[in-house]
Amino acid sequence: MVSIYVPLIYITILMGSMYGVSRFVRKSKNQESKPVSEEWFGENYSRNIFFSLLQQNPPAEDTLLKAALVLRATEGLRRLMKLKVSRMALNNLLNRGGVGDELIRKFGRLEKETELELMDIAKTANSLQPGWNQFIFQTCNEIIENEKIHSIIDNIPKDIDSISQRWQTEKILYEAADEELRIQAQKELGVL
């Protein structure tokens, strides 16, 4: 009687473990099909806006499509710049053994996705206006630089307040030290 239960328990455990492994494999495959750029950077709203404008019925105006494409290209360039900075840090971590192969593979996929995105932007720009693919990235780079300058300018008033306070404290300390030196010099001369 005991001998009949042992094979049944064995088969049940075997089938359960096979089911668990197959479920794990299917789940991991579903996660890999998701674009890596969404995991890394979040959703690309400018790309979504551009594609929604393309699919509008009646079609959107060319100027609106071009503006949306410039926004999409600007976001693509921002992501590319972040990837370049991250690549250097990732290489340092890789040399030290601080990251695994999975992260390296994901980062490689992310770089390829970004390159494909930029190539698609260039093709789309050329289809909207022939020859525009050569100038769109220059325009986007200027937009990014302009945003950097504006962020620096926006931080200037905050810096002015802190610099002004520091200057006032240093001025008081300097005047006190100067007064002390003046008194000491007068004592040495015998004036006091």
Number of strand elements: 0
Specify the overall morphology: flat
Mind telling me the C-alpha Rg? Answer: 32 Å
Counting H and I runs of at least 4 residues, what is the number of helices?
Answer: 6
Mean pLDDT: 86
Oligomer: single chain
Share in β-strands: under 5%
What sequence of helices (H) and strands (E) makes up the elements?
HHHHHH
Largest sheet: none
List unreliable stretches of 5+ residues. none
What is the helical fraction, as a range of percent? Answer: over 70%
Subunit structure: Component of the heterotetrameric Sec62/63complex composed of sec62, sec63, sec66 and sec72. The Sec62/63 complex associates with the Sec61 complex to form the Sec complex.
Keywords: Endoplasmic reticulum, Membrane, Phosphoprotein, Protein transport, Signal-anchor, Transmembrane, Transmembrane helix, Transport
Organism: Schizosaccharomyces pombe (strain 972 / ATCC 24843) (Fission yeast)
InterPro entries: Sec66 (IPR018624)
